[in-house]
Specification:
The complex is a heterodimer of chains A (about 250) and B (about 90). With about 250 residues, chain A is mostly helical. In chain A, about 65% of the residues lie in helices and about 0% in strands. Chain A is built from ten helices and no strands. Chain A is globular and about 55 Å long. Chain B has one domain: Roll (Ubiquitin-like (UB roll)), CATH 3.10.20.520. Chain B is built from two helices and three strands, in the order ββαβα. Chain B has a three-stranded antiparallel sheet with strand order 2-1-3, with helices on one face. The chains are: A mainly alpha (about 250), B alpha+beta (about 90).
Amino acid sequence: MNKAIEHYLLRLADTALTQSQRIAEWCGHGPFLEEDIALTNVALDLLGHAKLLYEQAAEVSEQDVSADDLAFLRDVDAFKNPILTELPRGDFAFTTLKQYFVDQFNVLLYQALMDSQYQPLSDIATKALKEVRYHLTRSRDWCLRLSLSTDEAKQKMQAALDDLYFYTPELFETDDQLNQLMAESIIPDMSALHNQWQQQVDELLNKCQLKTPTSGWLATGGLRGEHSEHLGYMLADMQFLQRAYPGCEW
Amino acid sequence: MKLYEVFIRAKSGLNHRHVGSLHAADAQMALQNARDVYTRREEGVSIWVVEAAAISASNPEQSEEWFDPAMDKVYRYPTFYPLDKEVDNM
């Protein structure tokens, strides 16, 4: 059971960490000062969630590892995030829509995880939920603003949707270990969660007057450690310091 | 984007105080930006934003005639009344 829990904690932690890193890349490049700070806040919140999740994963792991080891010393094929969160940040429309998809997922997931039979996960969910609710308010507002403003903004939002849409089902992907956790009520039923998510997303996209694409490459594999070429570059960037100067602190 | 002035209440019971300004497209975005820019370190429990253009300000060129006359009128200060201990901080 601990192995499955560790597996799932890493799935969530890696998702939060990669999403955080992509958002953090906007630091100093935001469209205007206030939004730059706001985006960086989101990145820091997600990094905080990743830290809690890695610490818990290190706690249940049979190996003698720390949260830092898990974040900075694992290679691409050990990462379990969905491909969605490792995609390059793109333009502001792409970042915004991707953030909305992840925020909507996080809110529903953490709400459900508050009832987890595994207390540490329920505690983390309770703490994270307040923050991700705020993230969702922000990214929803931005989706509406951009989609309903100028033609150029609308086009960029539509292009982002076309590019991103078929990466989203992977958020709800399961495997034997996750199925076992679902059976034990440690994590919520992922297909029910997917339905709730889809309903919320359809509603918003409708308000945004965006057209959902009907076909595309359906992303899969992150949970098994099969990633896009982008993750390696991200890890090279993110892990450089710990790998070049093992154990270095500041 | 428009300029907004930001007011924050540090604790319940205290007044909202002016803390700075920011840019936003409308009031809702201004509130969110104020939350992210001015309350990151637990500075507040409530935020007001006001469009800077909506504030009418006194004219600095008239400062002398507006404010200087109050300087030599000590009798306007309520310092000649004995105060009860309970209202010590007035």
